[in-house]
User: Fold these one by one.
Assistant:
Number 1:
Amino acid sequence: MSQIAHTSRGPLEYRIVGQGSAVLVLNGGHTNCSSPLGHESFFLDQGYQLIIPSRPGYGRTPSSVGKTAEAFADTLVSFLDSLHPDQVIVVGISAAGPTALQLAGKHPDRVSKLILQNAVTGGKFPTGLTRVFTYLAFNPIAEPWIWAAFRSYGRRAPLAALKSMLRSLSSLPADQVLTKMSPKQQQDALNLLLASRSGSGFLHDIHHRCGDISRITAPTLIIESKYDGAVDSSHATYAAERIANVELFIAPAESHLLWFSPHNVEIEAKMRVFLEA
């Protein structure tokens, strides 16, 4: 069940689950604090508490609390002050990468460790054509209809709908990705996609910048899917070359949705070692 926190910049939707050391999870594009992502059970099984906010423009968090990654990083500090953890482990996923990096760079005393999962950093940015398509598909008028059409398609032909999305999420043929996924992973991936909404958040995401990441002092683990079709590999390389205390792990996961891969076991093992160090 999500809640609303009242920060110095305005209301912020969030969810907290578990008990233990705090992990701040910054979900990626088209998701909110209640989105069914894959590593929640991993962190809970390790004895962590997850603090999961909806980023500006997603869920019930208004854009006004931080349209830029830098502004939202400052909002997160106000939010964390209200919850009282001195430091948090930060997980930045996909389009939330710039916010995670701004938080770790501007407020190093609040971040004990940083994990980036197929995260946008300062690498290759979308072309002008991609930006035009983003505005056409995810503007406030079109966005509800785009996702409603996908949900209708997903109910009528679930595997075909999943396959259609995988074409943009993997550099491998979609059929090849599907054959590697278990039936449960296929269903979990479809559930995530069917729950997706962009609100106004994704239009903010495409303008986010990560700032001067050489300021980051927290130990950092960068996880990159080898066959990610959504976030170019230059983003992982960009961060790995500029953060001092960093480890880059290129996972043989078949798509951007690394949680729903048979190689997720290896990813979780790598995170476990990193967290215990």
Note: The chain is about 40% helix and 20% strand.
Number 2:
Amino acid sequence: MERKKLGLNDLRLCVDRVVKTEHAMDAAVLAMNENNSNEPPPLIMRPGAPVHPLEMALATPKRWNNGRKLKIKFLDGTSTQKRLTQKYAEHWLQFANVGFDFNGGASAEIRISFRKAGSWSALGTDSLLTNAFPKTDPTMNYGWLRDSTPEEEWRRVVLHEFGHALSAIHEHQNPQAGIKWNLNEVYRVFSGPPNNWSKAQIDFNIVQKYSVDQLNATDFDAKSIMLYAFPGKLIASGKATANNTDLSDNDKRFIAEMYPKAAPAPATLEIGAPEALAAPRPPREYGAAHFRKAAAHLQKLRAR
């Protein structure tokens, strides 16, 4: 069956819930404490060049610890809304080494509501940041999913938001995407209903790209569930992006690499092996230790 071709009035996009700059270092420390592979990439600078720890905080991934069982709580919603959310969220579990406990209670890391405007989710471990997401507030919201909403839309939106909850970004903001926007039309469309965004919100949610340091950037995936269906009118080439409603093969591979079900075999180094195999890593002038020291100093200043 041919899918409905989406028009400009059908564009319902989720809003990136990135923490405020003043909380970025706290969010980065939480991410590193959760999973030490979230350490920010080393910033190698010329001698004497300063590096602000905030730069490293903003480059910190937000992955959960591999094998983590995430506790989930519904703050509201009908039995149908809860059932369909759980049904499609669990599709990720076929490929990722994480678990979901939908009876998470007061200690839930992911808290779901259907009452607020728009659809959105905290990005990975950002949901642990209580000064951005208080324990009584949602970390994920479904603003337009109702009992009567077609199941294909339920699958599309729930898979997308739980992708964010597992720390996946929007595919159109992948630095490898190469999308050139028809900016005048982008601003016109997204400033009106159903999104009603300001120019700053449009820039943040549509136009801006993540830096390569902020993710394990893969090649752009035109079939990804993390990519929205943008009509050709919004893109300089005139070529629309697809209306993806299920996980792509690359989505499955990517999440399996992020949360592997089987650990890779440890590398071995034989005595007498070529020197290139034992080459040391490049110097980490500004690595995780530098960042943690700066973050601890900031916490002391706040406590005064």
Note: Strands lie at 69-74, 99-101, 110-113, 119-121, 140-142.
